[in-house]
Amino acid sequence: MNFTEFCAKSYPEKSVFDRKQFDPFTNFVKWFAMRFGYFLFQGGVTANTLDVLALLLSFLGFFFFSTARDGHIVLPFLGIALLYFHIFVDFVDGTLAKASGTTSLLGHYLDEIGCDIDRMLLLVLFGVYTGKIFFILGNCFAVGILIRLAPLTKKELPTTGKIGALCRLYVYKYSFLSVRFMLAILPLLLGLVLLMRWDLQLLSTLLSLFYEIAAVVWLFLCIPQFKEKAKVV
Fold first, then answer.
1. What are phi and psi of 12, to 5 degrees?
2. Which residues contact 121 (CB under 8 A, 6 or more apart)?
3. Calpha distance 167→150 (Å, rounded)
4. Counting Cβ atoms within 10 Å, is residue 180 exposed (0-12), middle (13-18) or buried (19+)?
5. List of domains in the chain
6. Is the CA virtual torsion 79, 83, 88, 94 positive or negative?
7. What is the 3-state secondary structure (H, E, C) of 10-62?
8. Range name among 13-22, 46-55, 65-74, 93-102 with the lowest pLDDT average
9. How far apart are the first and last CA of the chain?
């Protein structure tokens, strides 16, 4: 299979830049991902294999990231690079699966769980940076509510009015829970803090407080809905 045939099987558009629903930068990343994907395809690498390897590298990246608390600079930036590679894989794996005709529900779950794990680890990392057990436990709580509960319950909450407007702050594609913000912008912010020798503990404390409060707010948003369901039963 040549590259043109590979592209034709991977997406319906004639060019990735024809995808008007995405911004130019996203389309450029996809353009590069197509070429990287074709290279892997020629080497016989499957989408699921790539997802698993990228997830393991991401876990290693967070280990490197955690060394920032000890004053390291090089290792945390290597961790950021590995995290970004995991995000990049998200542009590649679907291309590989479609081109090879191996799309599956298992592959879909592997694709989704990767970004969830990255966001979970990032929140826990904020708690570790604070050096306080309260924030570590609080961020674990926030992980369960914001990364797991919120996606499951968002369809049960109103889409209009004040509650609907507040919910959109959580689920909007550029929200503070989005992959774009948490896995693209926040690592850059943390890298800048390390580079400029700013107070990492203070930033992590503020971020931890923000996400913990956001988790509590989401729980309160769910309470009226649970009462309403109970009445129906």
1. -75, -25
2. 58, 59, 62
3. 9
4. middle
5. 3-232 (1.20.120.1760)
6. positive
7. HCCCCCHHHCCCCCHHHHHHHHHHHHHHHHHHHCCCCHHHHHHHHHHHHHHHH
8. 13-22
9. 57
- Quote the CA–CA distance of 124 and 137 in Å, as a whole number: 8
Q: What is the token pair recorded at 148?
A: 């797991």
Q: Which pLDDT band, with edges at 50, 70 and 90, does 5 fall under? A: confident
Alpha-carbon gap, residue 118 to 124, rounded angstroms: 10
Q: What six digits make up the tokens of 221?
A: 């948003």
Element holding 216 (H helix, E strand): helix 200-232
The answer to whether the beta carbons of residues 120 and 148 sit under 8 Å apart is no
Nearest to 171 by CA among 149, 154, 153: 154
What is the reported pTM? 0.86
